[in-house]
Each structure stands twice: as structure tokens, then as C-alpha cells.
Amino acid sequence: MKISKESRRVARQLMKLTVKDGQVDPIIVRRVVDGLKRDKSRGYIGKIAAYARLVRLELDRRHAVVESAEALDAATQASVTTALQKKYGAGVTLEFSVNPALLGGMRVRVGSDVWDGSVKGRLDRLRDRIG
Fold first, then answer.
1. Can you tell me the distance from the alpha carbon of 131 to that of 30, in angstroms, rounded to the nearest whole number?
2. What is the DSSP letter of 73?
3. Do 119 and 69 form a contact (C-beta atoms < 8 A)?
4. Shortest CA distance to 92 belongs to which of 30, 22, 29?
5. 90-131: per-residue pLDDT in tens?
6. pLDDT in tens, 19-69
7. What is the distance between the terminal CA atoms of the chain, rounded to a whole angstrom?
8. What is the tally of helices (H) and strands (E) in the chain?
9. How many CA atoms lie within 13 A of 32 on its CB side?
């Protein structure tokens, strides 16, 4: 579905109203979507789609996924949490998971940012260099 420039502009304006204190307010999201569905103005489906995309991107930007080869102890989790909150702000939520395929180390993904300090990542980069 092609979204018009007008729909994108309206979605950006609505998004500015949705974020409070660096957080997406779910009550406002519900009101905005309900209002757009109720009014059914021209191009309302495109506006909802553009708005939903912006909300999803904002939520992804505030969510960190930390993968490690083995379960991290509480001290390491606290250290990672502190570092990510320092970089992305206090509103970041963290999800810790175990991925044995990493072989060692950890991989952190926050929105579109990825830091790969895993053994598997290093081996893949080495393989790519060698060709």
C-alpha cells in the first residue's frame, strides 16, 4: 500500500502528541487510532498505517534484546542494564535471552542498532575477510 505524503505528515504530527516523557503513551495511541477510524477522513487507512509504523519504530527504539551464549548472572545483567540506560535513557526495557549458537560473548540489539561481541559474530567476520 502506497502511503501519501499527507498521511505521513499527519502521522508525524500525531506521533509528536503520542510521546510523553520519552515514552509512548498507550492511552493516546488508542484514542488516535479510534479517532481516525471513527472520522474516516480521506486516506484514513494510510494515516493509520503510517502512524502504526511510527509507533512500532518508537517502541523498538526503547526495547533492547540482549542475547548471550549462557545465562548472565545478576551482576552482569545489572551492568548491561546500567550501560544501556546511560546510552538510551531510563525508559529502555531489556529482554535477556540465551542463544547457544553464539558460542560465547553477547549480542545486543536496540531498535536498528546492533552490537555483536559474540564468538560466532567474530568467526563470521573473519570468514568474510578471508573470502
1. 51
2. P
3. yes
4. 22
5. 778 899 999 999 999 999 998 888 999 899 998 989 899 987
6. 877 777 788 888 878 888 888 888 778 888 888 888 888 887 888 999 999
7. 40
8. 5, 6
9. 25
By 3-state DSSP, what share of the chain in percent is helix, strand and coil, each rounded to 5? 60, 20, 25
19 exposed, middle or buried (CB, 10 Å; 0-12, 13-18, 19+)? Answer: middle
3-state secondary structure of 130: helix
Query: Containing H/E element for 100?
Result: none
Residues 6+ apart with CB under 8 A from 46: 1, 2, 3, 4, 7
Joined together, the cell numbers standing for residue 37 give 477510524
Side chain identity at residue 31, one-letter code? R
Q: What is the CA radius of gyration of the chain?
A: 19
Of 51, 69, 38, 45, the C-alpha closest to 10 is 51
Q: What is the identity of the amino acid at 109?
A: R
